[in-house]
UniProtKB/TrEMBL annotation:
One Pfam family named in its UniProt record: AAA_15
Phylogenetic placement of the source organism: Archaea, Methanobacteriati, Methanobacteriota, Thermococci, Thermococcales
InterPro entries xrefs: AAA_GajA/Old/RecF-like, Bact_Antivir_Def_Nuclease, P-loop_NTPase, RecF-like
Top-level taxon in the UniProt lineage: Archaea
All copies of domain Endonuclease GajA/Old nuclease/RecF-like AAA, residue ranges: 1-47, 234-309
Protein name: ATP/GTP-binding protein
PANTHER family: ATP/GTP PHOSPHATASE, ATP_GTP PHOSPHATASE
Length: 358
């Protein structure tokens, strides 16, 4: 579990330190203060030090497309100041991990200064492609060796270096999702597959049926050379394509599969309240709290909903989960924050009537 986090030069965040994090962390604040950026930074940091390079590739693709895919501009926008590396550092299980992201405009000079070797910038130029890909390399200078990754996208590239001697030191299962993903072709089929493989499909279905009792099941069906998800509804003669269902159902289904299948890892959800009616919202909150406890998962999420905050405080305290409300705001051009336990946050809501969203 991540207990502290340091973000430097990422998107709109020049620098931010968060400490005393809990198992379930709810990030709140007004628009454009950096809530989503914090989730992105955590997911990218976990991906950068992950043993499986496909994790970082998947996360980066999702992060870049969530804000709108503008090729080089999307990569460029990850940096608060282009001439300064992004630094992401976190502590989990008393072990510090960090990753540095360097932009290609000064990449050769940065690598030469960092590692004491020359780096052929033409290599990057020749490796550019239309999609994001991850190329692992091992940079060596004399007896000194250090792992690195090169993120390559169309007309842009970033070198990622880790502070660990090994190239990929450990496995960090991490899922980062946004409302965009529930309508992304193939995504629901992917998370269904993950749940099915670990035999948690029926747990996910139970979560869905709590909010939508008319649903009998979900099934991937081969169609037109691919696989599409269909939904079986009581008293309806034909199965209905998942993508034609309502957004509330789609969002809950996506979260249900992820909550039931993610174990010993991290689940990050942007705009967690999106599209839910009250019953669906309550079901999702219960599932998040229960899943975090049973599957040893740390949860980070953002919300603008006071109803969501009140609901997660109620059930989080009821289940004895170690939870935090993290309030982010801009003050005199600086990003500041406060962190409250669920218990303290509930007192602020009930006794003082404070709107924790800012």
């Amino acid at each position: 579990m991540i207990t502290s986090l340091h973000i430097k030069n990422f998107r709109g965040i020049s620098e931010l330190r968060l400490t005393d994090l809990g198992q379930v962390n709810v990030i709140v604040g007004r628009n454009n203060v950096g809530k989503s950026s914090i989730l992105e930074a955590i997911s990218i940091a976990l991906g950068a030090v992950n043993q499986d390079t496909s994790v970082l590739k998947e996360i980066l693709n999702r992060v870049l497309k969530w804000r709108g895919w503008l090729k080089r501009a999307s990569v460029y926008s990850l940096f608060n100041t282009p001439s300064t590396p992004i630094e992401l550092t976190f502590v989990t299980n008393n072990t510090p991990f960090s990753a540095r992201f360097m932009y290609p405009s000064y990449l050769p000079q940065a690598i030469e200064k960092e590692f004491g070797i020359k780096f052929d910038s033409e290599t990057l130029k020749n490796m550019l492609s239309e999609s994001v890909e991850i190329v692992p390399v091992q940079i060596k200078a004399g007896s000194f060796s250090r792992g690195a990754l090169i993120l390559i996208s169309e007309n842009g590239a970033i070198t990622i270096t880790t502070s660990n001697d090994e190239l990929y030191p450990i496995e960090f299962p991490v899922e980062f999702v946004t409302p965009y993903d529930m309508n992304t072709p193939g995504f629901i089929e992917e998370v269904f597959s993950k749940a099915f493989k670990v035999k948690s499909y029926y747990k996910a279905l139970e979560i869905i049926q709590e909010a939508y009792p008319e649903v009998e099941g979900l099934s991937p069906v081969p169609e037109d050379g691919s696989v599409l998800m269909y939904v079986d509804i009581k008293h309806v003669p034909k199965s209905i394509p998942y993508y034609s269902m309502g957004d509330g159902f789609k969002f809950l289904s996506m979260i249900a599969f992820l909550v039931s299948s993610t174990k010993n890892g991290y689940l990050l959800i942007d705009s967690a309240e999106a599209f839910h009616h009250p019953r669906s919202l309550e079901v999702m909150v219960r599932a998040l709290i229960k899943g975090a406890k049973e599957n040893n998962v740390q949860v980070f999420l953002t919300t603008h909903s006071l109803e969501f905050i009140d609901t997660i405080l109620e059930y989080g305290i009821e289940e004895g989960v170690n939870g935090r409300i993290i309030y982010i705001k801009q003050e005199k051009g600086e990003l500041v924050h406060s962190i409250e336990t669920f218990e303290n946050a509930k007192e602020l809501r009930e006794i003082l009537g404070i709107d924790l969203r800012g």
